[in-house]
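2024-03-11 09:14:02 INFO worker-7 job=invfold-0412 stage=load source=structure_tokens
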């Protein structure tokens, strides 16, 4: 190749138009050595099909974030929901950037990206037991001031009807248990809403992650002050489920919500689930024994699921969250095994499915990679690239 430099920087995105918020969950763990619980891309050397099409990268690179923003916008994804963690030692103290786990991508990469302002973003407060949660005083005195100053005040923070949206992942109920009662949690949330109003917003929206079939807890979530529920991903319990069964199960779970809590759920569409690399790196959390089904929808199957999801939500009230909002699982969970970001196995297939089903397709996506326009040296890659040919020969018998 001639190695001709065709561009000086990432070409400007030309977004596709959609009539709803299309948000992809974003796992910011791809700075070498930052993840802690696993080894990031180093855990993927035996999974060459999962290699990002852009190559291994450092997530805090603003140029990398600009490529992600470009690809997302040109296929209809207009919001990233960043997983947001604080260290346990920070609870009860003022929050700084140094008190965050995996804050590098958001603060150093995304916020410094040239096209950051074109892409909405939100945070999902990860309150698992490994990380810090909060309580009434801490939330008002420490979390809210940091969130207001660093996130909500930005023009591109996700707002619905003038209200910033905070997503909360409390799968182990650590955050719930930080309040003495549902009423205290609601009072705290209401105080946060008043703080948001004092800062010039219309209020504040809290959303809680809930993927189980038991919807009896929704009444408690309402009492706690949550405005709606969502699923980070969908679990499929059938052993060795076929892709047809996977699609049917996702639709069943969403239809259950549409029928029982039509005013309270946001649809999520999952493309795959295969955390095999974490069976080795995180065996106390992930194992083949507690993962009955490993599955990957093809891009065409994913497209069918998107179409069915839109049809399922169409009869709901126009002002319902399910008509305004659709979540995609997941942008870049490479080792947990669900990712839309272009890979060697699927290319841009999943993103093309999103554009085809959820937008009016009024643009022409740019599929040139950095190396094809002379920009590949700018991504600040510190990961050691494995010999993918050797790995493919070993794993797949490729010659």
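2024-03-11 09:14:09 INFO worker-7 stage=emit residues=399
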């Amino acid at each position: 190749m001639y190695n001709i430099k065709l561009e000086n920087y990432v070409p400007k995105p030309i977004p596709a138009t959609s009539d709803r918020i299309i948000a992809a969950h974003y796992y910011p763990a791809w700075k070498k050595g930052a993840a802690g619980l696993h080894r990031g891309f180093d855990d993927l050397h035996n999974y060459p099909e999962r290699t990002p099409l852009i190559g291994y990268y450092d997530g805090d690179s603003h140029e990398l974030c600009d490529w992600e923003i470009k690809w997302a916008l040109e296929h209809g994804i207009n919001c990233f929901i960043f997983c947001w963690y604080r260290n346990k030692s920070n609870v009860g103290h003022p929050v700084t950037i140094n008190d965050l786990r995996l804050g590098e991508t958001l603060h150093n990469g995304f916020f410094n990206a040239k096209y950051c302002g074109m892409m909405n973003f939100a945070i999902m407060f990860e309150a698992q037991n490994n990380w810090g949660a909060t309580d009434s005083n801490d939330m008002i005195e420490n979390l809210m001031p940091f969130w207001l100053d660093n996130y909500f005040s930005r023009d591109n923070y996700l707002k619905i009807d003038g209200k910033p949206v905070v997503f909360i992942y409390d799968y182990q109920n650590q955050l719930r248990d930080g309040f003495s009662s549902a009423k205290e949690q609601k009072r705290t949330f209401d105080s946060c809403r008043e703080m948001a109003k004092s800062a010039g917003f219309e209020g504040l929206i809290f959303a809680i992650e809930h993927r189980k079939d038991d919807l009896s807890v929704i009444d408690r979530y309402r009492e706690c002050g949550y405005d709606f529920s969502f699923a980070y991903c969908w679990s499929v319990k059938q052993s060795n489920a076929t892709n047809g069964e996977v699609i049917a199960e996702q639709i069943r779970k969403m239809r259950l919500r549409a029928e029982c809590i039509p005013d309270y759920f946001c649809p999520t569409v999952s493309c795959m689930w295969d955390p095999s690399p974490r069976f080795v790196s995180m065996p106390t959390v992930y194992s083949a024994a507690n993962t009955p089904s490993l599955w990957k929808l093809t891009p065409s199957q994913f497209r069918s699921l998107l179409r069915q999801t839109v049809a399922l939500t169409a009869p709901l009230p126009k002002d319902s969250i399910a008509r305004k909002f659709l979540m995609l699982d997941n942008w870049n969970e490479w080792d947990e095994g669900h990712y839309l970001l272009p890979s060697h196995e699927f290319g841009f297939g999943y993103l093309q499915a999103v554009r085809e089903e959820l937008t009016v397709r009024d643009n022409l996506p740019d599929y040139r990679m950095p190396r094809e326009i002379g920009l590949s040296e700018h991504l600040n890659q510190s990961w050691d690239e494995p010999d993918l040919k050797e790995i493919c020969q070993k794993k797949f018998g490729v010659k």
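2024-03-11 09:14:09 INFO worker-7 stage=report msg="The chain has eleven helices and 13 strands."
2024-03-11 09:14:10 INFO worker-7 job finished
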